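Protocol step 4 of 5: obtain the predicted structure for the target chain.
Materials: sequence only (see below). No template structures provided, no constraints applied. The aim of this step is simply to have a reference model before the mutagenesis design in step 5. Sequence pasted as it appears in the construct record:
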Amino acid sequence: MRGGDERSTNPSRTSLSKGRGYFEAHFDNPTGKQHTLSHAEHRLFNNTILFAEWTPHFQLEAEGAEDLLQYPLWAQIRGLPRFLRNEEFLREVINQFATVINQFATVIYVENSDSYRARMLGLRVRIVPLDTITLPDTIIIPKIDGDGGAPHDVVYTGGPDQCERCHKKGHSVKHCPQPRHPNKNP
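Step 4 output (structure tokens):
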């Protein structure tokens, strides 16, 4: 898309180019927004598009503006017993956890438990974190007999690439515009 071009890439979404690779999307209804954020990848003219929740404080020209965008992620709880691997339990745990940890995420979509990926690797939920820095790596799930709890790892995937050199999102080290510092040790 060229700067200023407005195109309809989805019947319920209209996109407007804002420049510097950013687009503003307007949805006809909340369901269209939820559907768009729930899917991991979108393509437009053979380019991958990553949708992010727009925050009221985002200013395109500001330094570090990318850090204010809320990217949807996949969250998965590892090591759950088979009888706890269902959509209701996963949704309940993530929603309770979100409330306890300053609303770390809003659950927007649970992957279908009948899919091959879900059967092999376990269920995962699509979330929009408010702050990716404070996302915890483990949670404690109480045991059924009431005797303490068991720690379970929480794995987050599907976020934008982050460069290990400049720590900006959207590109890898291979495509980093910041020059590589030569090794100072002889």
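Step 4 remarks: Residues 1-9, 98-105 have pLDDT under 50 and may be disordered. The first strand starts at residue 6 and ends at 10.
Proceed to step 5.
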